[in-house]
TrEMBL record:
It comes from Nannospalax galili. Its EC number is 2.8.2.-. The gene is Hs3st3a1. One of its GO terms (cellular component) is Golgi membrane. It is a single-pass type II membrane protein. This is Sulfotransferase.
Length: 393
């Protein structure tokens, strides 16, 4: 427009003043908004720091009026978490059995590689350590102890979405196979954690290992134990299917199931059958741990309602319920829930293609006989755990 036209010099001389005031005002507004935003982020980040973590043994809970007192630490923590999430390689999908987490040098290098990290592992997770993104290695406060083919991998992968969970990718097999290597070796396998984060591992064979309850209790009697269980008949078939995929020459499921088919005598020494006797395996655990320190996750519900089951697990671990419905979608082809996308990745993340294999067809009579066999053990297990898993409905 002709604003600078014949209107004269008056408005022209006045303009720079109002502009500079406007500019200052804008600057102040921006600063204010930035400050507000920073405080908003801090408040959001600070809340899960205390409270929920209190239930987890061995974790320090910051004292006092936390939002303000802790803000430098919280800001660092948030930044580090973001860094970590960006660095996480998704999807970390190597072959089954040789699963390794990229940021767990102890596992990749093996027992020999423990030297480099050990000095840092002793460092306290103080401000400097936080700034340097070190953290420290801790013995696990929670372990997924079983069961094989129950859905333990799925549970661990879902749990890892939580920013306060750090877990070993591979199965350490410490309390069954490598106990002689000592706790220092075990701890060195663990990922570094920041204050308030929970260290976890999963090794499904612990549940059926006689020595495991006493050994884990000797490490810490406060260890939280998670058992993913699934209908023992389906589990046995799934177990057999996995073996069959590696060794196609093994006998049929039926011939391995029965000691004497015509007498209907089931071979309880076959591991595929034996692992499903949950009540029997649970007994020694309850001699070392109170029932309240164990959580039994339904492998079936982990598939049909992953968010619901994850809610129970997060509560049990004293974590804020961060993993919810919106993290999952159901893949009809696979018949399995998938994570929509992992933090720091734009790709959806389903379980490896070895999961959800098609099971061989088993004669109905064999299934009936197996269900009959497992029923008393299942009922005993429901009684012991206080939860009816619905396998005999
Ligand atoms: C299987 O059981 C049947 C009936 O009890 C018996 O006659 C037979 O000898 C048994 N076979 C074996 C190999 O034990
Ligand atoms: C569902 O799973 C199938 C088989 O693994 C895969 O090919 C497909 O891409 C998946 N679809 C989605 C939407 O994830």
């Amino acid at each position: 427009m002709a604003s600078r036209g014949p209107a004269g010099s008056h408005p022209i001389s006045a303009e720079p003043l109002s502009r500079s005031i406007f500019r200052k005002f804008l600057l102040m507004l921006c600063s204010l908004l930035t400050a507000l935003y920073v405080f908003y982020c801090l408040a959001e980040r600070c809340q899960p720091l205390s409270g929920p973590v209190a239930g987890v043994p061995g974790l320090r809970v910051p004292p006092g009026p936390r939002e303000l007192a802790l803000w430098p630490a919280a800001a660092q923590r948030k930044r580090l978490l973001q860094l970590r999430q960006r660095r996480r390689v998704w999807p970390p999908r190597p072959r089954e059995g040789s699963y390794e987490e990229p940021d767990t040098p102890g596992l990749v290098v093996g027992p020999g590689g423990s030297g480099a990290g050990s000095s840092v592992a002793e460092a306290p997770p103080g401000t400097l350590a936080l700034l340097l993104d070190e953290g420290s290695k801790q013995l696990p406060q929670a372990i997924i102890i079983g069961v094989k083919k129950g859905g333990t991998r799925a549970l661990l992968e879902f749990l890892r979405v939580h920013p306060d969970v750090r877990a070993v990718g591979a199965e350490p097999h410490f309390f069954d196979r490598s106990y002689h290597k000592g706790l220092a070796w075990y701890r060195d396998l663990m990922p570094r954690t920041l204050e308030g984060q929970i260290t976890m591992e999963k090794t499904p064979s612990y549940f059926v290992t006689r020595e495991a309850p006493a050994r884990i209790s000797a490490m810490s009697k406060d260890t939280k134990l998670i058992v993913v269980v699934r209908d023992p008949v389906t589990r046995a078939i799934s177990d057999y299917t996995q073996t069959l995929s590696k060794r196609p020459d093994i006998p049929t499921f039926e011939s391995l199931t029965f000691r004497n088919r015509s007498a209907g005598l089931i071979d309880t020494s076959w591991s595929a059958i034996q692992i499903g006797l949950y009540a029997k395996h649970l007994e020694p655990w309850l001699r070392h741990f109170p029932l309240g320190q164990m959580l039994f996750v339904s492998g079936e519900r982990l598939v049909s309602d992953p968010a619901g089951e994850l809610g129970r697990v997060q509560d049990f671990l004293g974590l804020k319920r961060i993993i919810t419905d919106k993290h999952f979608y159901f893949n009809q082809t696979k018949g399995f829930p998938c994570l929509k996308k992992a933090e720091g990745s734009s790709k959806p993340h389903c379980l490896g293609k070895t999961k959800g294999r098609a099971h061989p067809a088993i004669a109905r009579e064999v299934l009936r006989r197996l269900r009959e066999f497992y029923r008393p053990f299942n009922l005993k297990f429901y009684q012991m755990t206080g939860r009816d898993f619905g396998w005999d409905g």
